[in-house]
Amino acid sequence: MEQTAPENQNVRPSMSETAVLLIKQLRPKQWVKNAIVYMPLLFVGKFDDPNLFISATGATIAFCLVSSSIYVLNDIVDMKADRIHPTKCKRPLASGRLDVRLAAVAGSFCLIAGLVIAFCVRPMVVLAALSYMTINILYSFKLKNTPIIDIFCVASGFVIRAVAGALAVKATASAWFLLCTSLGALWLAAEKRRQELKLADSGSGSHRKVLADYSVSIVTRMENIIAPSLLTSYAMYSFNSPHGHWMMITVPIVLYGMMRYQMLSEQGTSTGAPEDVFWKDRPIQLTIALWLLACAFVIYGSPTQQMAYYGRLIDSLKFW
Question: Which residues make Cβ contacts (< 8 Å) with residue 99, sequence separation at least 6?
Fold first, then answer.
C-alpha cells in the first residue's frame, strides 16, 4: 500500500525548520563523493602547489553544488515512488515537509552557482559539469528504467568528477586511472542495486521500475565480473605507475577495502549508499586514510631513497 505524506504536511514549518529541511534536501552528506576531484592533483604529485590546489577545490565546490541541484531534481521526479520506499519516504520532499517550489528554486540556484564557479576555475570544467548534468537529467526521466544502462549512468558521475579534477589542474588522466575509476564506480553502482533489491525484497519493482528486470543473483554475477577486473586493473596501474613500483604497496590496502565492503554488503544494507559506509564504518575510514597516506608516501616521500638511507643506517650499527 502506498504511504502518504504526514497529515500535518499543510502546517507551515518555521524558518529554521525549513532551512534544516532545505540543507538536508541538498544532501551535503553525499558531497564526500566529490573528493575524487582531488585525485588527479594527488597523482600528478602537485598537491603542494597552492594555485592548483585552489583550482581543484573550486572544481570540487562546483560539483558539490551541481550534484545538489541534481539531487533536488531526482527527488522531485521520484516523489511518488519514494513515498512507498521504507527509508526514502522520510526525505523532505517525499514526506511533504518541504515545499516543492522552494526546493526547485534552491536547486536552480545551486546549478547556476556551480556552473559559474566551474567557469571561473576553467571553462573546460564547465563542459564536464554540463556532461554530468545532462547524463543525470536523462537518467532521471528515462535511462533509470533501462537495465544495465542505469548502472552505467550512476557510475558515470564518478568518472566525470575525476575528469573534471584533471581538467581543473590541467593534467592528463591516464587510461589506467580512468579504467580503475570506471570499474570502481560500476562496482559501487551494482552494489547499490543489489542492496535496493534486498531491501525491497519481493516488492522491489514497485519502488524503482528497473528493479523488476534485476535479481540479486544477476547483480551478484555482474559484481563477480567487475570486482576482479577492478583489482587486476588497479594492480596493473600501480605496477606501471610513473612513481615506480612502490605504488604496489597500496594494492593490499585496496584489496582489504573491497573485502570489507563485501562483508558489509552481506551483513546489512548500508552499502546501498557509499556515503553512509564512509561516514559510519570505522574500518573503511581507516582504510581510505591509510591508502591516501601510502599514496602520498610513494608520490612525495621518495621511498627508494628513504629505504636506502635507513638500510645504510641499520647496516652501520655495531655492537662490538
Answer: 18
